[in-house]
Amino acid sequence: MGIELTPRAAERVQQILAERGLPATAGLRVGIKGGGCSGFEYTVDLVKSPRKFDMPSRHDKVFVSNGARILVDKKSLLFLDGTTIDWKEEEFGHSFTYENPNAKGICGCGTSFAV
């Protein structure tokens, strides 16, 4: 399964890379950490070096979705497998959103989840 980005999320990733002067072959590191009101929080960071995708460590898995590259550590993947990431723009803000089939519950703001 893996992790997927919607076309809108992939486009936003490419915009962020371009705004920072990074090559289109860079991408995102997606993961989880303990915290939030439901137990786990999503983490998203830029991976500036395309080499990390071309030669990932044995602890990482690489996905390409709608032209965007995603790096996930294998422990986080246990909780994120099958997740779809979207980009939402609303009147009072914008953010990545997560449709995670492994989440048994999510907090009201959608930034943390329980398994």
What does this structure look like?
This protein is an alpha+beta fold and 115 residues long. It has one domain: Hypothetical Protein Aq_1857, Chain: A (Sandwich), CATH 2.60.300.12. It contains 3 helices and 9 strands; from the N terminus they run E-H-E-E-H-E-E-H-E-E-E-E. The strands form 2 sheets. Strands 4-5-2-3-9-8 form a 6-stranded mixed sheet. A 3-stranded mixed sheet has the order 1-6-7. The longest helix has 13 residues. The mean pLDDT is 89.
Please provide the count of β strands: 9
The CATH architecture designation is Sandwich
Order of helices and strands: EHEEHEEHEEEE
Strand count, sense and barrel status of the largest sheet are: 6 strands, mixed
Structural class, by secondary structure, is alpha+beta
Tell me what portion of residues adopts beta-strand conformation: 35-45%
CATH homologous superfamily assignment:
HesB-like domain
Rounded Rg = 14 Å
Helix count? 3
- Look at the structure and give the mean pLDDT: 89
Per the CATH scheme, the topology name is Hypothetical Protein Aq_1857, Chain: A
Widest sheet, order of strands: 4-5-2-3-9-8
Number of spatially distinct domains = 1
Per the principal axes of the C-alpha atoms, what is the gross shape?
globular
State the distance separating the first and last CA atoms: 18 Å
